[in-house]
């Protein structure tokens, strides 16, 4: 099954279900290591782990359902709660999990913002690791380097169909653009 949408310039991006599953699998692999940061701060809060598990189920063949989307929202609520509690690293780890689910909802629209669906889980995880290490950018760069290695040729091919990552977004946006540039 392939979905096609019009680009702004009239060309069409094609995106198959198997490509969507590959992108989601990549997002899960990038986000999963950061779960430890969240769970260290909130050991009884399973929302980010449930989001990762739901995304993995999609990768393994489950359909995109409301429950999948709900797990993303729940992880983002956990991120908000930890941010409000002053637990910035845990917040970004939860955002990585929520964005891993978001990868399953990548749209074949030729918009730079769609690149976030592919790369945000890696960038939020990298930022969580940075913050956990005392805001050390070298730690984030290391996670971005590992995330680059995790990107298989299918993920890179899908990424290259989209415009480059957009400007803005603070440090996470910077990490997205670094990863995007390194994969293109």
Could you characterize what this model shows?
With 184 residues, the protein is mainly alpha-helical. It has one domain. The protein has nine helices and two strands, in the order ββααααααααα. It has a two-stranded antiparallel ribbon. Helix 4 packs antiparallel against helix 5 and helix 5 (88-102) packs antiparallel against helix 6. It is globular, with a radius of gyration of 15 Å. The relative contact order is 0.16.
Which percent range fits the helix content? 55-70%
Task: Classify the beta-strand content into a percent band.
Answer: 5-15%
Number of DSSP helical runs:
9
Seen as an oligomer or otherwise, the chain set is single chain
- Count structural domains: 1
Spans where pLDDT lies below 50 across 5 or more residues = 1-10
- How is the largest sheet built, in terms of strand order? 1-2
Structural class: mainly alpha
| Estimated radius of gyration | 15 Å
Output the keywords.
184 residues, mainly alpha, globular
Summarize the structure.
This protein is mainly alpha-helical. It has one domain.
What's the helix and strand layout?
Layout: E1 2-6, E2 12-16, H1 17-31, H2 35-41, H3 47-59, H4 66-84, H5 88-102, H6 115-132, H7 137-150, H8 153-160, H9 170-183
Antiparallel strand pairs: 1-2
